[in-house]
Design goal:
Length: 231
């Protein structure tokens, strides 16, 4: 499983200073992933990550509050941005349609974010999944997931004029959105990136809207015209 980060696509850096900051953030993430994969989470410090990225520990904390955040690519402002986007996306349209737009663009942005780290983005994603066998990282992931799902619930509740303490519908939709995000990225990585994750997420929402029929386009997504598995 993976955290639902990236559901609010980052803006392209427009200045030299912003591009430099983005490059430093990527360097810190690469260093965290490499070192933790090599040594194990408990044997890597913030100082180690900063040294590998050729910055000071103080600079590290300008980008991430912890080594867990560097590993997951967590943005402190993401939950608030996600809540606002869900509330305002596709005005006048059903909430499920708005979630579809948010999730499809989000998984596409996540794949692009991983690609920016260099190398095969699916390999980075698989490495992150393997690292989460560590109990501490599983707990950190669960906490981040809860925060993101809460933002989804609050955004949906605002959109629907609902009280999530009395109406279970926003919570159900939030769980569905988080599930589609995880599922599409997981399959994308497992299949070697043969199908774009945004396409997978879109097909998953189509299947949901159709009532999850056993025969649907989602199940044929990696099958070629001869009916043979394309992998």
């Amino acid at each position: 499983m993976m955290t639902v980060t990236g559901m609010t696509p980052a803006q392209s850096p427009s200045s030299r200073r912003e591009r430099k900051k983005l490059a430093t953030r990527r360097s810190l993430r690469r260093a965290a992933l490499d070192l933790i994969a090599e040594r194990g989470f408990a044997h890597v410090t913030v100082e180690d990550i900063a040294e590998a990225a050729d910055v000071s520990p103080r600079t590290f904390f300008n980008y991430f509050p912890s080594k867990e955040a560097a590993l997951f690519g967590t943005d402190p402002g993401e939950a608030a941005a996600l809540r606002e986007r869900v509330a305002r996306e596709a005005p006048g349209q059903p909430a499920l349609d708005a979630l579809r737009t948010v999730v499809v663009s989000g998984v596409t942005a996540k794949a692009a974010e991983l690609a920016d780290l260099g190398g095969d983005p699916a390999d980075w994603l698989n490495r992150m999944r393997e690292l989460r066998t560590d109990p501490h990282l599983r707990a950190a992931q669960a906490a981040q997931m809860a925060k993101v799902e809460r933002a989804l619930v609050e955004g949906l509740a605002g959109r629907l004029g609902a009280d999530p303490e009395r109406d279970p519908y926003p919570g159900l939709l939030a769980a569905v959105a988080a599930g589609v995000f995880r599922s599409s990225l997981t399959f994308w990585a497992a299949s070697g990136g043969t199908v774009p994750p945004g396409q997978l997420a879109d097909l998953e929402f189509q299947a949901l809207a159709a009532g999850l029929p056993e025969r649907c386009a989602l199940r044929d997504v990696t099958t070629n015209k001869n009916g043979k598995d394309s992998q």
